[in-house]
């Protein structure tokens, strides 16, 4: 059986450890051991644990940014509600899977600072999906499918904020279960579209 490339094994091992142990308690030595390589080999592919974490988010979790980029590049495909439903679904899954990994960032100030510095150096961060969704909505606005007076940045923030909130807001409920992602995405997109769609604006 052919062995997977070292970079793939490292990402897989990092994803599993960060999910089960937590980012703060996961070391590069443990990741290398789980990947079946040396720690020196790990650093040939990733400059730091922070970079490795960012790559896990971008390559092992639902791909939100590529979806937003493709929609912004070719607006007018499908309906805004259909597109926002798919965006909400992907975003909800992304936050659901990334929240357990990233939660420990907020417990350690130095770790959070290193993570933020690495994100800035790579041109990434939690603001990037908001900007991407805003770009898509503005593209639809130029086509006349979104109301001209709609605040697209606020709409993007509302949709993605709701998706992020879903990841941890329901643990205290009686069932402790997250709302089913497909139904959640559909209802969220429909509600948001009602407020910004040109088709629903007053005559």
TrEMBL record:
Record-annotated HTH tetR-type domain positions: 4-64
Domain of life, per lineage: Bacteria
InterPro entries according to UniProt: Homeodomain-like_sf, HTH-type_TetR-like_transc_reg, HTH_TetR, Tet_transcr_reg_TetR-rel_C_sf
Coiled coil (residue ranges): none
Keywords on record: DNA-binding, Transcription, Transcription regulation
DNA-binding feature ranges: 27-46
Claim: ATP-binding is one of the keywords in the record: no
Pfam families named among the record's database cross-references: TetR_N (PF00440)
SUPFAM superfamilies: Homeodomain-like, Tetracyclin repressor-like, C-terminal domain
Protein's name according to its UniProt entry: TetR/AcrR family transcriptional regulator
Organism: Streptomyces spinosisporus
């Amino acid at each position: 059986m052919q062995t997977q490339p070292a970079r793939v094994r490292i990402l897989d091992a990092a994803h599993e450890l960060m999910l089960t142990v937590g980012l703060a308690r996961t070391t590069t030595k443990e990741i290398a051991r789980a990947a079946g390589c040396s720690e020196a080999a790990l650093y040939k592919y990733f400059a730091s644990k922070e970079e490795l974490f960012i790559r896990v988010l971008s390559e092992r979790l639902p791909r939100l940014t590529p979806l937003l980029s493709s929609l912004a590049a070719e607006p007018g495909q499908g309906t805004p509600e259909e597109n926002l439903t798919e965006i909400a679904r992907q975003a909800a899954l992304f936050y659901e899977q990334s929240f357990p990994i990233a939660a420990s960032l907020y417990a350690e100030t130095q770790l959070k600072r290193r993570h933020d510095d690495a994100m800035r150096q790579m041109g990434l961060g939690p603001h990037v999906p908001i900007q991407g969704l805003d770009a898509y909505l503005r593209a639809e606005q130029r086509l006349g499918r979104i109301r001209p007076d709609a605040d697209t940045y606020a709409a993007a923030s509302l949709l993605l904020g709701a998706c992020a909130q879903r990841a941890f807001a329901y643990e205290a409920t009686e069932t402790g279960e997250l709302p089913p992602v497909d139904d959640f995405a559909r209802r969220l997109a429909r509600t948001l579209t009602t407020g910004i769609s040109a088709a629903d604006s007053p005559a």
